[in-house]
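Expect sequence, tokenised fold; for instance:
***
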Amino acid sequence: MKRLPFGLSLSKPLLPFIALLLHLTAWAHKPSDSYLTMRADGDSSQLAVRWDIALRDLDYVLELDRDGNGELTWGEVRSRGDDIARYAVAHLRLTADDKACELQPVAPMMLDHHSDGTYAVLTLSAKCASFERGLKAHYSLLFDVDPTHRGLVQWIAPGGLASQPLVFSADSAEQSLQLKAPSAWETLRQYIIEGVWHIWLGYDHILFLLSLLLPAVLMRIGNRWEPASSLKGSLLEVLKVVTAFTLAHSITLSLAVLGFVSLPSRFVESTIAASVVFAALNNIRGSIEKRRWVMAFTFGLIHGFGFASALADLGLPQGALALALVGFNLGVEVGQMAIVAAFVPLAFWLRGTGFYRKVFTPVGSIVIAIIATYWFVQRAFDFRGPF
């Protein structure tokens, strides 16, 4: 048994838990995505395609960092521009009327900066047959090395009247591109699903929520955690925390999406990481006990800007902006409540054990704080690190 700070001991049953949390340091940024905008050129059967692919992903599959110093220069990237274009084109297939479209680069590769790093920007053109019998896209970028990778597509149909967000994943690699505007239900459903996936894949949001939920089934007496006396009291505490977090991030998500407020992405992402550190350490020091909902509301305002960035990356249909906003926010809440429903009953059942009170809660909080501190350093100082 190993000794830890604050007089805590590390038992063998906790080692798998810590190993799992430490694995999350590899997800200091959001999961791997690429972004495509595909637009039909007037009434013709030609498509204009812009494709943003993360340099970190391209470096992994193409080994762009030739000198192996851990830093990519413009010279290293530019010298492999043709390889990057060939690799991308080989993993995107467009078919119209059951015939393959001819996809090729039409401009030099550029670079653009997203909230999670630098991306290569490819400008492509696709010459297709007529669209009378439909248009399909098959996307396979990075699926062979990263099954969690997604292609986020904004498809703009002929005439610019129909805007359709699509998400390609390993289990939905081929999809049809609609030539008419999707129904209100289809738009709402799409963004609800994306909201659920965003919270489930947003490890910083999950760890912040778990840091607030860990002590919800406990009460502090002196310097010790003791089990809560009733399920009703624990559920009331959870309700206050979750409601405060929901209200706060809904406010800033709406304000950011509607264009009323904007914050630098590095500040937002760094502050989100700092919020996880603060919430986790609070479980050790006990600075804020009966007003964790205040902390949830305060930091929830910042998390809302993070949600807004993810929603913007998905693409916002101008004709159905309200539906997209409502759907995404509803999806976030559904995903969040699923986490609460899975965690709280188990935590309440274990609350009386010494393992939960003396090991799981304090040591788990310390590990969460360490992981979030690593994220903060990466985001605030643009530090790539070994992960």
